[in-house]
Every structure is written in structure tokens, then in C-alpha cells.
Amino acid sequence: MSKTVEFFFDLGSPASYLAWTQLPALCARHDAQLRYRPMLLGGVFQATGNASPAMVPAKARYVFADFQRYAKRYGVTLAFPPGFPVNTLGLMRGTMAVQLFQPERFEAYLAALFPAMWVQQRNLGDPQVLATVLREAGFDPEQYQAWSADPQVKAALKEATEEAVRRGTFGAPTFFVGEQMFFGQDRLEFVEAALA
């Protein structure tokens, strides 16, 4: 029976980006299916009383340095976009929409959006910048906006976020292997052990 890793993420989370750079290869090594689960991190924070480490200056300094250590270990670039932290409500509705309406292009979408924000430092909270990034990746920004406003999409993102919270999620990224939950890109070795 093939195993599955559920990956609850928000594009505005640097730790989600770092995890995304590693997960496909990790899952491939263990013949596991990677199931992408978009959620709204702001909604998770609201429901759980948690907050971004960026809100606590001493913690922010440590966490951002630690992210760079992991980026170096993974051999990837991590550069913070202007306007961080970004309000990702529209962005994550759009992400959910692509997953629902264009699932065959979902991985291509992530491959465009994650690096746009965390490598090229583009502020995806700015509608103009987002439209440019989408167009460059072969997506129709007008279609994306229309999808993002679709009540079905809004409901799906809300439900996914509520499900994540019900299952114990308090931040991003959060992974589930069966009933086991792991939080943070620095826990990927435990995800890997659970698959092995």
C-alpha cells in the first residue's frame, strides 16, 4: 500500500517554501504520494491563538537565521520579499482554485509562485505583481481572479483550513503521514522516518 504525505501549506510561509523544495524528492524516495493541501495560515493563527515568529523580534532573528541554515543545507535560495509578512487570503484562494479547476497544472503553478516570492523576492500581495507572475507562468490572471472570487473556492479554502485546525495544525508547514503529525520544515527527517 503506497503511503501519502499531506502537506498543509501557505505560499506566504518561508518554511512552507523550504519544505516544498525537498518534499517531492523525499516522497519519490519512498514511493509515497505527495498530497498538497492549501490552507490559510492567517486563519490557522486566528483559530489557535498562534502568531508568526516575525511578531516576536528575538524569535524572528533566530528563526530567520535558522531558515538560512536550512536553505544552505538544502542548496536553495531563500530571500524575503518586500512587505513580508504578506496577507495571503487572495493568493491562497487562487491556489485552491488552481487545484480545483486546473489540477493538472497545480505543480507548475507552485513551481512558478514559490520561487517568485522566495527567490525572486516578488511581492505577491501586490495584484499587479501577481498578475505578471501568473502570465509569465502561462496562467490567465483574469481567470485566476474570477476563480478566486468563486464561492465554491472560498468555501473549499475555509474548509481545508478548519480541517487542518481540527487535526491539530497551528502553523505552516504541517505534514500528516496517516495519523502522525509533524510541524515545520525542520521535521522532514521525521516525515521520512514515518514513510520508511
From TrEMBL:
<dbReference type="GO" id="GO:0005737">
    <property type="term" value="C:cytoplasm"/>
</dbReference>
<dbReference type="GO" id="GO:0004602">
    <property type="term" value="F:glutathione peroxidase activity"/>
</dbReference>
<keyword id="KW-0413">Isomerase</keyword>
<feature type="active site" description="Nucleophile">
    <location>
        <position position="13"/>
    </location>
</feature>
<protein>
    <recommendedName>
        <fullName>2-hydroxychromene-2-carboxylate isomerase</fullName>
        <ecNumber>5.99.1.4</ecNumber>
    </recommendedName>
</protein>
<dbReference type="InterPro" id="IPR001853">
    <property type="entry name" value="DSBA-like_thioredoxin_dom"/>
</dbReference>
<dbReference type="InterPro" id="IPR044087">
    <property type="entry name" value="NahD-like"/>
</dbReference>
<dbReference type="InterPro" id="IPR014440">
    <property type="entry name" value="HCCAis_GSTk"/>
</dbReference>
<dbReference type="GO" id="GO:0004364">
    <property type="term" value="F:glutathione transferase activity"/>
</dbReference>
<dbReference type="GO" id="GO:1901170">
    <property type="term" value="P:naphthalene catabolic process"/>
</dbReference>
<dbReference type="InterPro" id="IPR036249">
    <property type="entry name" value="Thioredoxin-like_sf"/>
</dbReference>
<dbReference type="InterPro" id="IPR051924">
    <property type="entry name" value="GST_Kappa/NadH"/>
</dbReference>
<comment type="similarity">
    <text>Belongs to the GST superfamily. NadH family.</text>
</comment>
<dbReference type="Pfam" id="PF01323">
    <property type="entry name" value="DSBA"/>
</dbReference>
<feature type="domain" description="DSBA-like thioredoxin">
    <location>
        <begin position="4"/>
        <end position="196"/>
    </location>
</feature>
<keyword id="KW-0808">Transferase</keyword>
<dbReference type="GO" id="GO:0018845">
    <property type="term" value="F:2-hydroxychromene-2-carboxylate isomerase activity"/>
</dbReference>
<dbReference type="GO" id="GO:0006749">
    <property type="term" value="P:glutathione metabolic process"/>
</dbReference>
